Structure formats: C-alpha cells, structure tokens
C-alpha cells in the first residue's frame, strides 16, 4: 500500500475541486486493497442536502462498487476530521481505518467522534489517525473562508 | 398540529412496510406545518447502503421538497430512537424537533445521541421526546428479530 501522504494528496485534489465549485473544501477517497475505489468532495450546498459530505458520498460509491454495505478492509482518507454523522456512518459501514488531514476546530465534534470510534459495540475496532498533510488541508479551508465567505 | 400519536402511527405504518420487506422495521415521517412532507422505512439491506436509515431518507426527501438543506420548522417522527449518524444529520439539517417511539437498547447510542442533541454549537436547540407508542414500536422490532432473524 502506498503511504498516507499519497492518498491524502488524492483527497486534497478532490477538496480543491470543491473549492473551485464554491463548496466548503473537504475531499475524501476510499481505498480498498491499495486501490482508490471512490472519491468525492463535499457538495452540501450545490446538492442542497446535508448528507452530501465527502465521506458519505464515498461510502455510497464504495458500497455500490463492492456491492456490499460492509466496507471491511477499506480505509477512508479525508482532508478534515469527520463530523459525528460521518464518523458514525463510517463505523456502521465497518471501515477498518479513518485517516484525516486537519483536525476539527470544534471541541465537541472531536470529543464525539473520539467516543464513536473508540467505544464501538459491535465486534470491530477502527484505527483513527490524523495530521496527514495537515497544513495543506487546513490552509485550503482557511483560505476558502477568508476569500469566499467574507 | 395533530397529536404525536397521529404522526407516530404514520411512522409505524412505514415500519410495517419495512417488516414486510424483511428490513429491520424502523419507520419515519417528516412533518412541516402539520403536513407530512416525507416518509420512509429503513432500507439498509435492500439498498446495500448503511446510509439508508429511515431518518436519512426522510431528510433527503424533505430537502428536495423544500428545496433547502435547512429543515427549520420540521419535526421528525421515528419509531426507534436515532443512531448517532441520524441524530447528527438531523441536527445539521436544523430540524426543530425529534420524536421517537421506543428507546435504543444500546446505552452508548443513547449517551451519544443525547450529547449530540443537548449540546449543539450552532445557534439552535432541538427538542427531543421519546416513548410515543413505545410498546407498539418496540414490539414490531422484537417480533422481527424473533421471527425473521432466527
């Protein structure tokens, strides 16, 4: 398997597409057996739907690809630490691992996501790693909020 | 607005359809200005997608109907207490109120959902009421697990 930065750069490319489409720039890729089987950027505003976070679009695409809602063996790379909705979805989809770029600046979000990943009830554990290309992922977001939303 | 039991009975009718389709029987309806604008039952297995919980399908349908991801003014009635994924989605969609039938039997689920609803960061509060037609909603689930999954 290629290293974390390789896949995070792919997620970052997705986030940049989001930026160009005036969406909060978060990108994600789902990796299975070393291959990217799904990629997406956040499309909440253009799709008018809170469910269109990059992570959930990746879950949907990956489930279609594998013809299974169980995504055992998959790793999700995402440029921003997930929200509780996405974290819980990833846990229920049984992904093996979640790797994120920049941490959430929201303490409650971080606390909840940590609880969701660390105390799972079903027979499963999720690895959870952050800080991969953190500066690049974070700068894209702060640049977006400075330039596009002011 | 009609009373809680009226709408919960509608959600229960959806759950029964789920039962008939061999899905874990959870049903939901989204109500706006007294009118049901979306209804759904859990379709996780038939759609092969963890995102197809009744609540999320209702959010998607209601957003389409109102042409807005913001569901202010809406109340979601669901036969089973939501999971963290659905609770966080409902919070992000800014629904006013969530009314559920039977409580989750999973303590961690209950704790997380309570945290998600009670300590929201955006300028919003969500009413959260449970125990409406609890016995009917719960019996449908226990009957399903006894008869269909053994």
Structural summary, described in words:
- The structure is a homodimer of 150-residue chains.
- The mean pLDDT of chain A is 93.
- In chain A, 46% of the residues lie in helices and 19% in strands.
- In chain A, helix 1 packs parallel to helix 6 and helix 4 runs parallel beside helix 5.
- By secondary structure, chain A is of the alpha/beta class.
- The interface between A and B is medium-sized, with 30 and 30 residues.
Q: What secondary-structure arrangement, pairings included, does this model have?
A:
Two copies of one chain form a homodimer.
Chain A: H1 4-20, E1 27-32, E2 35-41, H2 44-47, H3 54-66, E3 74-80, H4 84-92, E4 97-102, H5 107-118, E5 127-129, H6 134-147
Parallel strand pairs in A: 3-4, 4-5
Antiparallel strand pairs in A: 1-2, 1-3
Q: How would you summarize this macromolecular structure in one to three sentences?
A:
Two copies of one chain form a homodimer. With 150 residues, the first copy, chain A, is α/β, with parallel strands linked by helices. Helix content of chain A is 46%, strand content 19%.
**What would you call the quaternary organization?**
homodimer
> Helical segment tally of chain A?
6
List the helices and strands of chain A in order: HEEHHEHEHEH
Shape of chain A: globular
Note poorly predicted spans of chain A.
Answer: none
Q: Summarize the main sheet of chain A.
A: 5 strands, mixed
The most extensive interface, with participating residues per chain, is: A-B, 30 and 30 residues
| SS elements, strand count of chain A | 5
Secondary structure class of chain A reads alpha/beta
Mean pLDDT of chain A: 93
Distance between the amino and carboxyl termini of chain A: 41 Å
Radius of gyration of chain A: 14 Å
Q: What level of helicity do the residues of chain A show?
A: 40-55%
Strand order of the largest sheet of chain A: 2-1-3-4-5
* Percent of sequence in beta strands of chain A: 15-25%
């Amino acid at each position: 398997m290629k290293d974390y930065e390789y896949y995070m750069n792919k997620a970052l490319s997705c986030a940049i597409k989001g930026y160009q489409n005036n969406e909060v720039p978060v990108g994600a890729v789902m990796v299975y057996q070393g291959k990217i089987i799904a990629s997406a950027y956040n499309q909440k505003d253009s799709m008018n739907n809170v469910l269109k976070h990059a992570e959930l679009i990746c879950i949907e695409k990956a489930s279609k690809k594998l013809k299974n809602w169980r995504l055992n063996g998959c790793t999700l790379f995402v440029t921003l630490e997930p929200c509780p909705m996405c974290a819980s979805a990833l846990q229920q989809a049984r992904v093996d691992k979640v790797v994120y770029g920049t941490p959430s600046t929201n303490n409650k979000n971080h606390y909840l996501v940590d609880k969701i990943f660390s105390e799972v009830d079903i027979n499963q554990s999720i690895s959870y790693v952050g800080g991969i290309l953190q500066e690049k992922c974070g700068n894209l977001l702060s640049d977006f909020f400075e330039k596009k939303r002011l």
